Amino acid sequence: MFELILGLPLLGGMVVMGSGWGISAVMFALHAVTLLMSLQHRQSFYGSAAGIVTCLLFSVPVWGMFGHWITAALLLVSMVDRYGAGMPGSFRRS
């Protein structure tokens, strides 16, 4: 999960600063496309919405780190909610 990498204290900051904040624009676009597709297919969208908020509001280094952590957790929860834990015999919604 790239969102979690961006939340790592030194590595995430180096990636963002090294790209001249361009990676934030790329992540915003990816979250926006995912949000539109999730809404179109009536799937959970809170992870993508949190990603958009993180890209827009959390440009302060320490706040951004926590924002990326929260977004990564929400994306993980929405993935598990949709696809299950990926373990044999696990409950899966259709």
Task: Outline the structure in words.
It is built from 5 helices and no strands. It has 94 residues and is mostly helical. The protein has one domain. It is globular and about 35 Å long. The relative contact order is 0.16. The model has no long low-confidence stretch (mean pLDDT 84).
Keywords for this structure?
mainly alpha, 5 helices
Short description:
The chain is mostly helical and 94 residues long. 73% of the residues lie in helices and 0% in strands.
Strand content: under 5%
Radius of gyration: 14 Å
Name the helicity range: over 70%
Number of H/I helices: 5
Topology summary:
Elements: H1 2-6, H2 9-18, H3 22-40, H4 46-57, H5 61-83
